[in-house]
Amino acid sequence: MHIDLNSDLGEGCEHDAALMGLITSANISCGFHAGDLGTAHLALKSAAAQFKAEALSAKLCHLDEEFVYEIALLHRDGRFVHVVMNAATGKFIGVRHGREPISKM
């Protein structure tokens, strides 16, 4: 059995270096301190409007050489959708329905 001990790092806390030796993976600057809340809110609203669904969550991630928002959406009929949006430009990059791989837009 493999257990992944994950931590949010790079959010302004002073103990990041000490935690690095204790964890097996990290979310770097993916929390509230990562950027401005207004940008994240606009990304959620935009994705919900385009895909006609309710936004459940969003997280800031690093994909290749850019930062992206991965946004989880739920349609009224129960269909679950993940949308990937460029954090800097707001351009939609890809979409995944249910558990299938993300397809480029």
General description of the model:
This protein has 2 domains: 1-34, no CATH class; 35-104, Nuclear Transport Factor 2, Chain: A (Roll), CATH 3.10.450.40. Helix content is 19%, strand content 40%. The protein has helices at residues 16-20, 37-51, and strands at residues 6-9, 25-28, 54-63, 66-74, 80-86, 92-97, 103-104. The strands form 2 sheets. A 5-stranded antiparallel beta sheet has the order 3-4-5-6-7. The longest helix is centred in the middle third of the chain and has 15 residues, at 37-51. It starts with 5 loop residues before the first strand and ends with a strand.
Total number of helical segments? 2
SSE succession: EHEHEEEEE
Average pLDDT metric: 75
Radius of gyration: 15 Å
* Proportion in helices: 10-25%
The dominant shape is globular
Number of domains: 2
Strand arrangement, largest sheet?
A: 3-4-5-6-7
Biggest sheet character: 5 strands, antiparallel
Q: Under the CATH scheme, which class of the largest domain?
A: Alpha Beta
* Amount of beta strand: 35-45%
The name of the CATH architecture of the largest domain is Roll
Oligomer: single chain
Give start-end ranges of low-pLDDT stretches: none
CATH fold-level topology of the largest domain = Nuclear Transport Factor 2, Chain: A
